[in-house]
């Protein structure tokens, strides 16, 4: 399958590292003009350099703004009035006892993981609808359907994304715009390395820590390892393509079989 995104403009929120950066690389490799996003100009510049290092002929720009706030979203809209592909990737996670999650932390997770994508989609999807083509994606998690006891607040926000995605897909029915969520399993990023070490300790090699984390905290994983960010990017690049025109309103899994059921 040859995916060609030439002539398409893409915006990936929270894309200066980890899964977001991998998605930016995948879209750029397919020919899209990709806008990376982060809260600091330094991190944005580093991300641009990272994308170009792997794809020297790629088209990549950046916007420094915190899209978990309405003010930050306005900065993005001013710099980039329209896009063809929107990937709502921005998200935070962290282990906290459910009885210790106060209102402020709940609100922080909601603003970052849910409202950021709602704001961006509300703005950009209308232009996609008017032009008759567009791709919107929400990066969710297996935690949306298998709520982790160590981070209930995170899982709940990812569950919300499945509903938000389905709702926008229905609102854009018949317009040529597709909206999907991607259920991502535990993925090997810097942040996840820190998370794993918090749960299993600092002793031993990383390989031992990863194996212990999977065995103790994600035992239903079928691949029995963390995903590579590029494996997630492969799915998002496909969903951004012409070939995915018949896929909308769905929750597609790239979770290594972590969610222990047949349907999402």
List keywords for this structure.
single chain, 264 residues, alpha/beta, seven-stranded parallel beta sheet, 8 helices, globular
What does this structure look like?
With 264 residues, the chain is α/β, with parallel strands linked by helices. Helices cover 45% and strands 15% of the residues. It has helices at 18-29, 41-54, 70-79, 103-131, 152-171, 190-200, 206-217, 229-239; strands at residues 9-12, 33-38, 59-64, 85-88, 134-141, 177-184, 251-254. Strands 3-2-1-4-5-6-7 form a 7-stranded parallel beta sheet, sandwiched between helices. Helix 1 (18-29) packs across helix 2 and helix 1 (18-29) crosses helix 8. It is globular. The mean pLDDT is 96.
Summarize the structure.
With 264 residues, the protein is of the alpha/beta class. 45% of the residues lie in helices and 15% in strands.
Task: Tell me the layout of helices and strands.
Layout: E1 9-12, H1 18-29, E2 33-38, H2 41-54, E3 59-64, H3 70-79, E4 85-88, H4 103-131, E5 134-141, H5 152-171, E6 177-184, H6 190-200, H7 206-217, H8 229-239, E7 251-254
Parallel strand pairs: 1-2, 1-4, 2-3, 4-5, 5-6, 6-7
């Amino acid at each position: 399958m040859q995916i060609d995104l030439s002539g398409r403009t893409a915006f990936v929120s929270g894309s200066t590292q980890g899964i977001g950066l991998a998605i930016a690389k995948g879209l750029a490799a397919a020919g899209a003009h990709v806008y990376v996003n982060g809260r600091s100009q330094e991190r944005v510049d580093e991300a641009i350099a990272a994308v170009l290092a792997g794809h020297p002929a790629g088209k990549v720009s950046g916007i420094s703004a915190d899209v978990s706030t309405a003010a930050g979203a306005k900065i993005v809209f001013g710099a980039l009035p329209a896009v063809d592909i929107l990937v709502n990737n921005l998200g935070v996670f962290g282990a906290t006892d459910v009885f210790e999650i106060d209102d402020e932390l709940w609100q922080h997770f909601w603003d970052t993981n849910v409202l950021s994508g709602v704001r961006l989609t509300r703005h950009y999807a209308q232009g996609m609808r008017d032009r008759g083509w567009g791709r919107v994606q929400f990066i969710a998690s297996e935690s949306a359907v298998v709520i982790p006891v160590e981070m209930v607040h995170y899982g709940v926000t990812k569950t919300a994304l499945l509903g938000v995605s389905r709702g926008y897909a229905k609102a854009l029915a018949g317009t040529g715009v597709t909206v999907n969520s991607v259920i991502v399993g535990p993925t090997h990023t810097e942040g996840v390395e820190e998370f794993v070490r918090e749960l299993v300790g600092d002793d031993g090699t990383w390989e031992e820590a990863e194996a212990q984390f999977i065995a103790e905290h994600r035992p239903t994983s079928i691949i029995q390892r963390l995903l590579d960010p590029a494996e997630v990017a492969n799915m998002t690049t496909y969903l951004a393509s012409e070939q995915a025109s018949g896929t909308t309103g769905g929750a597609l899994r790239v979770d290594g079989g972590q969610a222990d059921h047949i349907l999402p």
